[in-house]
Amino acid sequence: MSNEENQYDRQSFLGPKAQQIFTTATVGVIGAGGGGSHIIQQLAHLGFQNYVVFDPQTIDRTNLNRLVGGRKNDVRRQRPKICIATRTIKGIQPKAHVRAFRSLWMEEIDAFRSCDLIFAGVDSYKARHEIETSARRFLIPVVDVGMDVHDLGEGKYAMSGQVILSLPDYPCMTCMGFIDEAKLTQEARRYGSAGSVPQVVWSNGVLASLAVGIGVELMTNWTKSRLPPLYLAYDGNRGTVQSRPILELLNTACPHFPAGRVGDPVLEAI
Predict the structure, then answer these.
(1) Which residue range(s) make up the domain with 159?
(2) pTM
(3) What is the count of structural domains for the chain?
């Protein structure tokens, strides 16, 4: 047995085909910042070899408290986050194939649709809705990750987050009550005036680890458990993760993204 095969001995419980899956599958990561950088690092340690990474931003000083792989020298050089992500991957998997785009994912739709699984670490409901809509069209599972810190007044704060699996033909984020028209409208009204979103490294790490675990289960079925639908709520103050009760009330089929509405949109003659 080669040294490369020995490297993954301790995760052989994932199944005899796990490493083959990790070698051939293409994973997409939208957002290479706090949560995305954790996800990228973990995927590389697991042995994934094919990546599509989207992030138009460069690192700044405020990212150093949470961006895995970020360095002070990167801030001085205004290094793009996709370059830091590529460096992280290549440092662990030198032979990995990384397609990194310093642009929005919708500007590189062919790269987006080439993914077998997408991890989304974006900040807005609108961005999540757009990703989910396109992913459903191309039959790509999405694992959404997000967190926030809420000011309760009198010096008290509440940290919360979520990990949601959006799987084609299963309940979507609207079905689960995470996205709705009221949230989209409210967000649109304050567009351009939103302040910075508080982030810390440990909460991003917790949510990213849950997301990667979901992705691995989806690809390998190592627990022999049925995943979807899946909506995990994180309480950062208590350090707990719970499945949202709404899942017990959902039907299997999603009414918002019918199973037949897939592929590229086409114009029909009237």
Answers:
(1) 15-249
(2) 0.92
(3) 1
